[in-house]
Amino acid sequence: MIIVSKEGQLANRIVHASSFMVNAHEHNYRVKHLFFNDYYSFFSESLEKKDQPIRFWGKRSSWVINFFQNAVSFLVKALLKLRIKRLPFFEIIKYEGYDQDAIPFDLNKEEYLNKAKSKLVLVHGWLFRDRENLQTHKEVLINNWTPNNRFRENIDRYYMQYKKDHDILIGVHIRGGDYKKFEGGKWYYTQEQYYAKMKEVACLRSFSGKKVAFVICTNEKDISILSSNDFSVFNEERHFVEDLYLLAKCDYIIGPPSTFSMWASFYGNVPLYMINEMNSQLTEDCFDSKITFF
Question: What are phi and psi of 245, to 5 degrees?
Fold first, then answer.
C-alpha cells in the first residue's frame, strides 16, 4: 500500500500516516509513504527502526525526489480525472472528504484490507482513519513519532525552565496565517482574544492558589502577549517540532481546532480545550483528555 497524496503540514501528515501505521501493524501488511521527506530528518532516529510497519521513500528532499513525487502526483491525478482507478499492476483508492463533518474512510473495511494484503494499492486523500487501533496500538505511534534527540534535549531544557517555580503549565497554540481564510476564518482569533481566554483559564477554580504559566506556541512572528499579576507567559521563537512536543509535556493545552494541538494532546495524554468559539463559557469540563482525530 502506497500513500500518494501530500496532506498538509507536519501534524496533518503525522495524523494521516498514523492510521495507516497502526492498521498495517494490526493486519500485517506494509505501507510505503512517498510524501514525508520534508519532515523525515526530524524523526529519523525512531522511524528507521527495523520493526517499522511503514517505510518512507525519499528520506531527504532533492531534485530527483521532487521530480519523482511530481510525476507520481501528475499520473495519479490524470488517471483519476479520466476516471481510471484500476490497471493491471495497481489500483487507486481515492477518498473525497475534507469537511469537518465528513465521514472517515474506515481502514478496517474487509474490502480494503483484502486489497492492501494482495495487490499494489495507491491511496489518495485525507480522511483515511483507523480510530480503534489508534488507541489499541498507541505505543507503536509513540515509539515511532518520537523526535530526534537534539529536539528532545531542547524540549526538556525549555520544560525545566518554564516549569521551575510554577505548578501548572498550559500550552497555548496560536494559529495564524492560513487560519484567516480556513473555514471562513471562524477559528482565526486576535491576540487580545487569546489573552482574554488565558485570563479565563487562569481563574478556573481548579487552578486557585496555584502558580500558572502559559507557554505560547505559534507560527506567528509578532506575538506580544505579556504576563499578568495572575500568571506568567513564556513566548520565544522555537523550532516547530519543539513547539509540538513541548505542548505534549504541558499540563493542559488550549487552542483552536487543529491537528497540531490534537496530536500533542494525544501523544502526551494532555487535556485539550479546543476553542471553537471564543465567546463560549469556559469550565473545567471543557478540557478533553481523550482526543479522537476528525
Answer: -85, -15
Nearest CA among 123, 166, 135 for reference residue 7 = 123
Contact 262, 291 (CB under 8 A): yes
The pTM of the full predicted model, rounded to 2 decimals, is 0.93
The SS3 call for residue 56 is strand
- With a CB cutoff of 8 Å and minimum separation 6, the contacts of 192 are none
Where helices occur in the chain by DSSP H, the ranges are 10-27, 40-47, 63-81, 110-118, 131-136, 138-144, 149-163, 191-202, 240-247, 259-268
pLDDT above 80: residue 182: no
- Report which secondary-structure segment, H or E, holds 91: strand 91-94
Task: Specify the CATH number of the domain 149-286.
Answer: 3.40.50.11350
Identify whether the C-beta of residue 203 lies closer than 8 Å to the C-beta of residue 248. Answer: no
Task: Tell me the sheet residues that pair with 252.
Answer: 170
The predicted-structure confidence for 229-288, as pLDDT tens digits, reads as follows 889 999 999 999 999 999 999 999 999 999 999 999 999 999 999 998 888 888 888 888
**Cα–Cα distance measured from residue 14 to residue 12, given in angstroms and rounded to the nearest whole number:** 6
3-state secondary structure 166-198: CCEEEEEEECCHHHHCHHHHCCCCCHHHHHHHH
Give CA–CA dist 194/174, Å, rounded: 8
Domain ranges of the chain: 2-144, 149-286
Per the prediction, the chain carries an average pLDDT of 91
Q: Alpha-carbon distance 111 to 88, whole Å?
A: 18
- Residue 293 scores a pLDDT above 70: no
Residue 180, pLDDT above cutoff 90: no
CB atoms under 10 Å from CB of 261, counted, come to: 28
Distance CA 152, CA 111 (A): 41
